[in-house]
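Memo to structure team: turn this sequence into structure tokens by end of day. - J.P.
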Amino acid sequence: MKQDIHIRKAVKTDIDCIGKLYEDICDYLEKHKNYSGWKKDIYPVRSDAEKALMEDALYVARVKGKTAGTIILRHEPEEGYQNGSWLTEDDYRHIYVIYTLAVHPDFLKCGVGTELLAFAEQTARKEGCVSIRLDVVKGNIPAERLYQRCGYQLTGTVSLGYEEYGLPWFHLYEKIL
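Reply from structure team:
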């Protein structure tokens, strides 16, 4: 069901709702197949949103006055990205990296994830970026299908140093703009 989705930069008053969204997602994942490996009170947490807000990198998707999703866009890679092979040069001034794309369980399969990715692409194009990169834990089939459907290409598999959380391998994706 297509919703009227509004995406904008997050502001300080969004943090409580985004923190609650992260908690709701982790609660949902505890009861369902946890493809992402996200865990309550570990990742994602409110402080991740607060840090992204301070960096001016946090965006929020709203549907009918409710927080439906969020995304973080940064010009800096995960440390393990240096071990990946990419489609474009590694000049992160012209590359966005997507972090913590999250959709509230009440809004799954409503197009929020697709709209957040489209918004990220529009934002990147406006800034003259050449591509967008992201990583997804190997085996997160729903996320990988979304990224592939939106034109992201699998470029490799690397460790990002999260073995202690049971997340040894991540697939790297890139979309050339």
